[in-house]
Amino acid sequence: MDNEIEAMLVKILEGQSRIEIELRKHSIKIGTMEENIKRIAGLQNAYKDQNEILFDNTDSMIVKKTDLLSIIIDHCKKRFQKRI
Q1: Which of 29, 49, 30 is nearest to 41 (CA)?
Q2: Is the whole model's pTM more than 0.70, yes or no?
Q3: How far apart (Å, rounded) are the C-alpha atoms in residues 19 and 15?
Q4: Secondary structure of 9-76 in HEC code, one letter for each residue
């Protein structure tokens, strides 16, 4: 009977050791995943900032070109009206 109890305890302790090893592995994997998520979040913020700057630059160029086209159209209208 004592041998049976001792064998059961050994199996329980072996099982506990395997569980602890797996828990450590999962903890390491979770830590790695957290680091990767932080890196991805940082990159995402950098891309967002870069896109905002590019959008502002593009918007500014559109405004400048629209203003230039307005000036050209006004100039052409004046020259055309002088001919009439």
Answers
A1: 49
A2: no
A3: 6
A4: HHHHHHHHHHHHHHHHHHHHHHHHHHHHHHHHHHHHHHHHHHHHHHHHHHHHHHHHHHHHHHHHHHHH
- 24: tokens are 């450590």
84 vs 78: CA distance, rounded Å: 10
Per the structure block, which two tokens stand in for 32? 């790695």
Summarize pLDDT for 6-42 with one digit per residue, the tens: 999 999 999 999 999 999 999 999 999 999 999 999 9
